């Protein structure tokens, strides 16, 4: 066995860092600590590296797929990039279906890993993209891993992300905050943390009415991810697009933390919590990096 690691080996084990300036003196006086888990440090740049490699690896173990097969997935960006990387590592043809209004950096990154893209109308959103992926699978054009219904998505967060947070806080975590998209992160981490300490509050960030925040969704009932376990989420907090985008800029300028908009939404929620509690250890997921959003205009040119 080689002494050197592969790309697959270095997924996970991401740093947990303390916010220093954003919390301000008042929150520090309350004894609160706010920590961001830097999932953008994964090799393809987001928290989705974990479920991407997990879904492919477990499907191989079950004999559902084999190298050379075609994989299909509807994605809003980060899962697509992670799957494109994982497919490149494992030797699969990857077809990704995504709404046409998502950032050009995401599309270019997917193509760099060798994935093929199918862009769907903006008006149809992710719901249309998901429907098309299922249609293509029925037509025999490939296998859909289905991040929204695949138990291997939250499973990897139960096995890795949750334990890392617990260990890195020495069990002191009191609140966990995550943006909610496919809900794999919040579902898997919650399951682990609640087994360790039922008192830990699990908080999901969802978009306020009329807000479009990449990576955060409030799904229609018919499209609610099947992996989602609402019993594991204690509170849902609505985040406006303006607040998330402003927080993304502040995180970069005041903390040197260049993060995406959904990560900033989770940070905004963590800061709201910190204003109402004392002696808390609040962990939020920094799910990706800000360079994935440069073309959106969120960050000044």
UniProtKB/TrEMBL annotation:
<dbReference type="GO" id="GO:0004124">
    <property type="term" value="F:cysteine synthase activity"/>
</dbReference>
<dbReference type="InterPro" id="IPR005856">
    <property type="entry name" value="Cys_synth"/>
</dbReference>
<keyword id="KW-0028">Amino-acid biosynthesis</keyword>
<comment type="pathway">
    <text>Amino-acid biosynthesis; L-cysteine biosynthesis; L-cysteine from L-serine: step 2/2.</text>
</comment>
<protein>
    <recommendedName>
        <fullName>Cysteine synthase</fullName>
        <ecNumber>2.5.1.47</ecNumber>
    </recommendedName>
</protein>
<dbReference type="InterPro" id="IPR050214">
    <property type="entry name" value="Cys_Synth/Cystath_Beta-Synth"/>
</dbReference>
<feature type="domain" description="Tryptophan synthase beta chain-like PALP">
    <location>
        <begin position="7"/>
        <end position="288"/>
    </location>
</feature>
<dbReference type="InterPro" id="IPR001926">
    <property type="entry name" value="TrpB-like_PALP"/>
</dbReference>
<dbReference type="InterPro" id="IPR036052">
    <property type="entry name" value="TrpB-like_PALP_sf"/>
</dbReference>
<feature type="binding site">
    <location>
        <position position="78"/>
    </location>
    <ligand>
        <name>pyridoxal 5'-phosphate</name>
    </ligand>
</feature>
<keyword id="KW-0198">Cysteine biosynthesis</keyword>
<dbReference type="Pfam" id="PF00291">
    <property type="entry name" value="PALP"/>
</dbReference>
<comment type="similarity">
    <text>Belongs to the cysteine synthase/cystathionine beta-synthase family.</text>
</comment>
<feature type="binding site">
    <location>
        <begin position="181"/>
        <end position="185"/>
    </location>
    <ligand>
        <name>pyridoxal 5'-phosphate</name>
    </ligand>
</feature>
<dbReference type="InterPro" id="IPR005858">
    <property type="entry name" value="CysM"/>
</dbReference>
<keyword id="KW-0808">Transferase</keyword>
<feature type="binding site">
    <location>
        <position position="262"/>
    </location>
    <ligand>
        <name>pyridoxal 5'-phosphate</name>
    </ligand>
</feature>
<keyword id="KW-0663">Pyridoxal phosphate</keyword>
<dbReference type="GO" id="GO:0006535">
    <property type="term" value="P:cysteine biosynthetic process from serine"/>
</dbReference>
<dbReference type="InterPro" id="IPR001216">
    <property type="entry name" value="P-phosphate_BS"/>
</dbReference>
<feature type="modified residue" description="N6-(pyridoxal phosphate)lysine">
    <location>
        <position position="48"/>
    </location>
</feature>
């Amino acid at each position: 066995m080689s002494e050197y690691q592969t790309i697959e080996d270095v997924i996970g084990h991401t740093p947990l860092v303390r916010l220093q300036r954003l919390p301000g003196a008042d929150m520090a006086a309350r004894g609160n600590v706010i920590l961001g888990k830097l999932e953008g440090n994964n090799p393809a740049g987001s928290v989705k590296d974990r479920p991407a490699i997990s879904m492919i690896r477990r499907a191989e173990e079950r004999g559902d797929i084999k190298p050379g097969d075609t994989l299909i997935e509807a994605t809003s960006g980060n899962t697509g990039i992670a799957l494109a990387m994982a497919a490149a590592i494992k030797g699969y043809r990857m077809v990704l279906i995504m709404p046409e209004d998502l950032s050009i950096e995401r599309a270019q990154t997917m193509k760099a890993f060798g994935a093929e893209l199918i862009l769907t109308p903006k008006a149809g959103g992710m719901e249309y993209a998901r429907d098309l992926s299922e249609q293509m699978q029925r037509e025999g054009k490939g296998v859909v891993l289905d991040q929204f219904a695949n138990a291997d998505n939250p499973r990897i967060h139960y096995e890795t992300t949750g334990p890392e947070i617990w260990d890195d806080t020495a069990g002191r975590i009191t609140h966990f905050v995550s943006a909610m998209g496919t809900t794999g992160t919040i579902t898997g981490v919650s399951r682990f943390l609640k087994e360790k300490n039922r008192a830990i509050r699990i908080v999901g960030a969802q978009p306020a009415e009329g807000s479009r925040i990449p990576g955060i969704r409030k799904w229609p009932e018919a499209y609610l991810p099947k992996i989602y376990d609402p019993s594991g989420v204690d509170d849902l907090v609505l985040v406006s697009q303006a607040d998330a985008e402003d927080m993304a800029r502040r995180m970069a300028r005041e903390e040197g933390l260049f993060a995406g908009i959904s990560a900033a939404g989770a940070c905004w929620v963590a800061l709201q919590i910190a204003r109402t509690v004392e002696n808390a250890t609040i962990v939020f997921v920094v799910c990706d990096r800000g360079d994935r959003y440069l073309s959106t205009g969120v960050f000044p040119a």
